[in-house]
């Protein structure tokens, strides 16, 4: 009974800062914020970063009308990508709040269950995990389909690449759609690598954690519904393809065994042969070899 009371006390006291990035998807962001209003877990504040959208007025109006959510809005003067946005938010959270315990990265096109944050914090505490993920389901036309599992614990190997589900008991990485992260982790391994801009930054972050002996876990009772790629679809398929291939090569360079790093050069030639008419694949290879990272700029 004493242990149960102690655990419940921690759940009530653990302070969480939720970081959400918006980029030209105001309606999705507002839906996400509305779902956060239903959380049973109340000890949280929200840092919302706008990545230089065309319009941010609806979100500012929503913030004024929903003071109980304790939202702080920040408007950036350029699009810094997912990595730049979350790093900005993390720095703000760590600078202004000395009493926080966790930072929860949540995609703006996600909806949460009323018990999601309670279960995330509970699992993080019980398993002493550096990063705790949720079970993420596909959201189609605002209908939550719990049979369509999109992600839980990510698998990864250098032959097949990364997959966001299939390793719930021993995950190799946790998707950035929903990551509950211990505050002190950033002091040890640093922030997200802004070279990635978007895609594979979550895999890189988790591989760095694993190298330093930290544990990842998934809360099987924490549910998130996700409207996949609503922000990144604005970029178009060709630019998304560019980020995927360039960043996979960057991930390989940073973490792969030496033999895999040598193979990467052969892989580049294979890509050119496979996609002879895709200038975006050529851009990806060119930029990788010329150390051009961050935002696509061609």
- From the alpha-carbon coordinates, what is the Rg to the nearest angstrom? 19 Å
Instruction: Please give the count of helices.
Output: 10
Q: Helicity level, as a percent range? A: 40-55%
Tell me the count of domains. Answer: 2
The average pLDDT is 88
Gross morphology:
globular
Distance between the termini: 62 Å
**From the coordinates shown, what is the CATH architecture of the largest domain?**
Alpha-Beta Complex
Structural class: alpha/beta
Largest sheet: 9 strands, mixed
In terms of DSSP E residues, the strand content is 15-25%
| Low-pLDDT sequence parts | none
Number-wise, the strands total: 11
Q: Would you give the CATH topology of the largest domain? A: Spore Coat Polysaccharide Biosynthesis Protein SpsA, Chain A
Helix-strand sequence: HEHEHEHEEHEEEEEHHEHHH
State the name of the first-level CATH class of the largest domain: Alpha Beta
Keywords: Glycosyltransferase, Membrane, Transferase, Transmembrane, Transmembrane helix
Organism: Candidatus Roizmanbacteria bacterium GW2011_GWA2_32_13
Protein name: Glycosyl transferase family 2
Transmembrane segments: 259-277
Concise summary:
The protein is of the alpha/beta class and 298 residues long. The chain has helices at 2-13, 26-37, 57-65, 81-96, 116-127, 185-189, 201-211, 237-255, 258-274, 279-289; strands at residues 16-22, 44-50, 71-75, 102-106, 110-112, 131-140, 143-151, 155-157, 161-163, 178-182, 216-226. The protein is globular and about 55 Å long.
């Amino acid at each position: 009974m004493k242990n149960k009371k102690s655990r419940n006390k921690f759940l009530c006291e653990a302070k969480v800062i939720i970081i959400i990035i918006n980029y030209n998807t105001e309606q999705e962001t507002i839906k996400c914020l509305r779902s956060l209003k239903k959380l049973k877990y109340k000890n949280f504040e929200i840092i919302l970063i706008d990545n230089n959208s065309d319009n941010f007025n609806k979100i500012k109006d929503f913030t004024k009308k929903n003071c109980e959510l304790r939202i702080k809005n920040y408007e950036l003067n350029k699009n810094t990508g997912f990595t730049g946005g979350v790093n900005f938010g993390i720095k703000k959270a760590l600078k202004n709040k000395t009493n926080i315990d966790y930072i929860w990265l949540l995609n703006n096109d996600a909806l949460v269950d009323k018990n999601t944050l309670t279960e995330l914090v509970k699992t993080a505490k019980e398993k002493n995990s550096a990063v705790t993920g949720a079970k993420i389901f596909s959201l189609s036309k605002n209908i939550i389909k719990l049979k369509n599992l999109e992600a839980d614990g990510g698998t990864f190997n250098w032959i097949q690449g990364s997959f966001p589900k299939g390793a719930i008991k021993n995950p190799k990485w946790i998707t950035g759609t929903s990551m509950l992260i211990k505050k002190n982790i950033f002091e040890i391994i640093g922030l997200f690598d802004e070279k990635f801009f978007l895609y594979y930054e979550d895999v890189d972050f988790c591989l760095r954690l694993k190298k330093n002996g930290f544990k990842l876990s998934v809360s099987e009772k924490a549910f998130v519904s996700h409207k996949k790629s609503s922000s990144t679809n604005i970029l178009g398929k060709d630019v998304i393809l560019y980020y995927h291939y360039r960043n996979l090569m960057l991930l390989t360079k940073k973490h792969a065994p030496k033999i895999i790093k040598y193979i990467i050069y052969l892989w580049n030639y294979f890509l050119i042969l496979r996609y002879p008419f895709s200038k975006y694949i050529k851009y990806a290879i060119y930029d990788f070899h010329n150390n051009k990272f961050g935002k696509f700029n061609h």
